[in-house]
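User: Fold this; tokens only.

Assistant: Input:
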Amino acid sequence: MATGSLTRSRSNKILAGVCGGIANFTGWDAGVIRAITAVIALFTFGTVVLIYVLLWIVLPLEGESTTGLDTIVGAFSKKTPPPEDLR
């Protein structure tokens, strides 16, 4: 059965847990999701790879509320004080 929300899987992953998370969400076998993803990647000339990377960035890891996008934005928004010689 499907779980409550779509997240990346911590335990059922090969690369980033996206296919494992989709499998957990839909209730399908992760191997089937991975096979479907591979076949679609062949016929879409890699477009599904872009979608995979976007999902990797946007979906939170299982058990966490922050996403990869939150981490990226947080890294750029941290204000560091200027070096001593520029004060």
